[in-house]
Design a protein that fits this description.
Lipocalin, Carbonic Anhydrase II, 12-stranded mixed sheet, 7-stranded antiparallel sheet, binds zinc ion
């Protein structure tokens, strides 16, 4: 299960709505998306200044301030003809609004390599406006008219003086339009090149290797040594090559953590569960924790458990494919247990079920993540088995986002999370952890004993997105499991 990103997103939403820049996503890839504020674009001939930003899914730690950030805004000047970039300012933010640190950079102009983040922004900002053809024609007309007028005036003057008509001279009369015409050619050239580049890229899906040759990427040796912002050696660090300064967003000064943005956690390969702890010092407990989830739920003590009080309400919803699962957030819904109220923050799905019951997995599971005012978490797991079609799930699948990290909020569709619950509210309970990095412990698990049904088609649809997004079973290590009788 996954909590932090959505919480940050939710916290950021009202503020971003009020903020001035209008961010538009121009590229989305695992772990980050690149956005551009079109209202910031300033053109001076072939040079375009624009504000872009990278929104990371996972927070990174700023090496200078020790604070976490998830958004990096950058003001960069792009030379559309020479395909150079020069970042003049970067702003690191905790979320949409909270600034961690600002830095002015004095970098040199650097060539923009194909496939980089800067390349993506450059292509957007250097693309001439849609009506450029009309503009060109109009400017040419204006220039011709003014040239003619100037000629006519000169001609008249010269005629009056009875001298020969100097036609050529009028062309240097200093009107801006004159210089505007030659500047168009390189612009078009850059545009054609950009078009060629994007055609190249459109064919195969972007390979992760593309990011590898970035000169901004810290050397692996930096990664191993530093574990936090606080144990930096007192020795002065060698000056970073000026090279790094000029680029826009793929660079972060906190070398140690940037690496992690490149190896993203997942369920197989280098980012797989056995490596989660190595990807980021913050994930340490994924490997060392002794109260981790999921577990095989068995040998519980059978007791009378306090019924969970559900205050689930129908509301609109927001669904996102966050690269790990489909995740849904709803309006005001909550549960109460042992006198404590936990708000429903989000729910999401795993296939197959992460938890086992007496050694058996289910086809899927929904995790409903709740948070109390004191920050403590309670997760309700609803196991899902193959059977009849589930109308609640169907509503969600009907509104499944087409793109990763681009949420869908259907304006007229209402769901009631109570419809996801089984008829019997009896449950197992134990203390565990988040089942995704950073694997934080102290999570109260409430696993519904009765599964709900979903159709084979509905399981297949989820499988198209996530064939396997279940963390392996963790050691129970003598933990007490209670089973409602
Ligand atoms: Zn989960």
């Amino acid at each position: 299960m996954r909590l932090a990103p959505i919480a940050i997103l939710l916290a950021g939403l009202p503020l971003s709505a009020a903020a001035a820049p209008t961010w538009q996503t121009i590229s989305s890839e695992p772990g980050k998306r690149i956005e551009l504020d079109r209202t910031s674009i300033k053109r001076e001939g072939n040079v375009v200044q624009a504000q872009g930003r990278v929104v990371l899914e996972k927070e990174l730690i700023d090496g200078k301030s020790g604070a976490g950030y998830r958004v990096i805004e950058a003001i960069t000047r792009y030379d559309c003809t020479g395909r150079n970039a020069n970042t003049i300012k970067r702003i690191y933010k905790k979320n949409e609004s909270e600034v961690v640190r600002e830095e002015e950079t004095k970098g040199a102009e650097l060539p923009v390599r194909s496939g980089t983040l800067d390349d993506k922004v450059l292509r957007e900002v250097c693309r001439p406006p849609k009506d450029s053809q009309a503009e060109i024609a109009q400017k040419a007309n204006e220039a011709a008219t003014q040239l003619k007028a100037a000629n006519d005036a000169l001609l008249k003057k010269e005629m009056a003086k009875a001298e020969k008509p100097p036609v050529v001279k009028a062309a240097d009369s200093g009107h801006g339009e004159q210089s505007a015409i030659p500047s168009i050619r390189p612009n078009l050239k850059a545009q054609m090149e950009a078009a060629k580049e994007s055609a190249k890229e459109a064919a195969p899906p972007p390979a992760p290797a593309k990011e590898a040759p970035s000169p901004a990427k810290p050397k692996p040796s930096m990664v191993v040594v530093k574990t936090s912002a606080y144990d930096a050696p007192p020795a002065p660090k060698p000056k970073k090559p000026a090279k790094q300064e000029g680029y826009m967003l793929e660079v972060s000064p906190s070398g140690a953590v940037v690496q992690h943005a490149h190896t993203h956690w997942g369920y197989e390969g280098a980012g797989g569960p056995e490596n989660w702890a190595n990807l980021d010092p913050k994930n340490k407990v994924c490997a060392t924790g002794e109260r981790q989830s999921p577990i095989d739920i068995k040998d519980g003590i059978k007791v009378d458990l306090e019924p969970i009080q559900f205050s689930y309400r129908p509301s609109n919803f927001r669904i996102i494919d966050n690269g790990h699962t489909l995740q849904v957030s709803v309006g005001e819904s909550a549960i109460t247990l042992t006198g404590k109220t936990y708000e429903l923050v989000q729910f999401h799905f795993h296939r197959p079920s992460e938890e086992k019951i007496n050694g058996q997995r289910f086809d899927m599971v929904a995790h409903l993540v709740h948070k109390a005012d004191d920050g403590s978490l309670a997760v309700i797991a609803v196991l899902m088995e193959r059977g009849s079609e589930n109308p609640f799930i169907q509503t969600l699948w009907n509104n499944m986002p087409l793109e990763k990290n681009q949420p869908v909020s259907p304006p007229t569709v209402v769901i009631d999370p109570a419809n996801l619950l089984p008829a019997s509210r009896n449950y197992y309970t134990y203390m565990g952890s988040l089942t995704t990095p950073p694997c934080s412990e102290g999570v109260l698990w409430l696993v519904m004993k009765q599964p709900v049904q979903v159709s084979q088609d509905q399981i297949n649809i989820f499988s198209r997105l996530y064939r396997n997004n279940a963390r392996p079973i963790q050691q129970t290590s003598g933990r007490l499991i209670k089973e409602g009788r």
